[in-house]
Amino acid sequence: MLKIGLTGSIAVGKSFVLGVFRELGAFVLDADETAREVVMPGTVGLVQIVEEFGAQVLTESGELDRPKLGAIVFSDEQKRQRLNAIVHPLVYNKQNEWLAECELEDPNGIAVVDAALMIESGGYKRFDKLIVVWCDADIQLKRLMLRNNLSETEALKRINAQMPQEEKKSFADFLIDTSGGFEAATDQAKAVFEKLKRYQRSVPVQ
Q1: β-pair partners for 132
Q2: Element holding 134 (H helix, E strand)
Q3: pTM score of the predicted model
Q4: Where in the chain does DSSP place strands (E)?
């Protein structure tokens, strides 16, 4: 099975591109969803986060208050690293379980895992190919402000907390530019998927 990493900075359209790959027949996994699963009430992940950051990061119903935690970690690099040290290993384990299940279901399939911090964490190294989704910086800023209802200052703080887009692009085997909208991004994703299928057919069976 071909294992593909999909990454890119915040608010560049990764989830949309992932949806296109799903429609084309790939197995897909959104790491944001996995990250939510590993910190749900009753999980080891949530217990560790509360131990690290205090009960202030919980809602009244005992769930993780993601906006409140985000406000804490995006303004403090050390705290953000501590959060990642808790969440990343749990997400990796979930991803590995999912990839194993996909391979059992279809040894000749293509599995795509979407994760924003795949390059920063080094997680991209365990994939056969890496796709980086990107868009123009001004478009990214507007999308993030609109999506998360953030001020320009808050949105820029979150963007600047991540690896610059140009640096991420240097790691890519394939690039998908979403600046031109849904239709253009879909065409690029389809072209990349065809290349992945050709690559898969050329790889000898282990």
Answers
A1: 7, 175
A2: strand 129-134
A3: 0.88
A4: 2-7, 27-30, 110-114, 129-134, 174-177
| Per-residue 3-state assignment (H helix, E strand, C coil) for 45-62 | HHHHHHHHHCHHHECCCC
Q: Which two tokens stand for residue 47?
A: 């217990």
Residues 6+ apart with CB under 8 A from 134: 8, 9, 12, 165, 168, 169, 175, 176, 177, 178
Compute the distance between CA of residue 181 and CA of residue 168 in angstroms, rounded to an integer.
Answer: 21
Given a contact cutoff of 8 angstroms between Cβ atoms, the answer to whether 158 and 10 are in contact is yes
Tokens of 194: 């065809």
Helix (H, G, I), strand (E, B) or coil at 174: strand
Is the pLDDT at 168 greater than 70, yes or no? yes
Q: Specify the fold of 2-202.
A: Rossmann fold (3.40.50)
Question: Is 145:155 a contact under the CB 8 Å cutoff?
Answer: yes
- Has residue 202 got a pLDDT over 70? yes
**Residue 19 and residue 186: Cα distance in Å, rounded?**
10
Distance (Å, whole) CA 102 – CA 151: 41
CA angle (41, 42, 47) in 5-degree steps: 90
Secondary structure (3-state) at 151 = coil
Type of residue numbered 21: F
Domain assignments of the chain as residue spans, ordered by start: 2-202
pLDDT band at 205 (very low <50, low <70, confident <90, very high): low
